[in-house]
Each structure stands twice: as structure tokens, then as C-alpha cells.
Specification:
The chain is of the alpha/beta class. The chain folds into 2 domains: 94 residues, Transcription Regulator spoIIAA (2-Layer Sandwich); 53 residues. Helix content is 46%, strand content 15%. It has a 4-stranded mixed sheet with strand order 1-2-3-4. The chain starts with 10 loop residues before the first helix and ends with a helix.
Length: 149
Amino acid sequence: MLPLNSHNAADLQTGSLGDVEICLVGDDSVVTAYEMKMKRVTENDIDTSVTKIIRAPNRIHNYLFVTTDAIDPVVAEYAATFYEKTDGTEIAILDCVGFLRHFLHLFHRLRSEYLTAYQTIVLNEPDSAVSQTLKEAFLALRQAAESGE
């Protein structure tokens, strides 16, 4: 695991597929790429991701956008149309809560440790893209889950 660092270069300039890339243990092939957006995801963003997927040296299984803005249902449907066109690459758009659910699935065996690390990061980011309301909702959900409600 590497720390997440801010960047100011386009993915095409750096040669990366996304802002976060997941590889299988013992393999350097990216299987999932995440593109973080502090804006609404557009059809143009989807088209750019398809170009990266097509140019990738190995098959990408998932290309996921994580947005802090609302998800346009038309754009989400547009993204889903590329599954067959890319030979099975899922392109999807997640909001912050959807992203948390996704990661809980990935790290199901380390769920408690993941939630604690996520909580620390979110709460210690006063000027992050995560609103105070979302922070409070996260804490309420976590408390309910841990109490068995």
C-alpha cells in the first residue's frame, strides 16, 4: 500500500489509468482503477475513461468514478453501456457513500480496521470534500452497525 498523494497532472500525462489503481497481490496488472472527481461526472469523462481502458496493456475489470457531486442517471446509464463494448470492463459512478460500501465489500475481512482508518481520515480533514452532514451520517451509521441495530 502506498499513501495517497495529491497530484496536478492529467492521467494521460503521467500514464496512469486513474487516481487510485488496484492490482492483485503478486501481479502488476491493474484490475480496478478509480477516478476521483470533485465535480459531476460527464459523458466526456466516461469517453476519456474508455480511451484509457482500450489503451491499457492488460484488461481492466472495473473503472469506477467517485464523485462528491450528484450522479446524473443519464450519465450512469451511458457508463453502463460500455460493458460489452470494452469486453467486460464495468464502468460505474459512485458517490461517497457508495464508495464506502464498495470498499467495505473489498475489505470485508478488515472491516473494523478499515472503518477506523476511514473515520480518522474523514474527521481529520476539516476542508475535505466530505460535508459535515455526511460525516455525521457516517458516524451515526457506524454507531448503529456496531450496536447491532
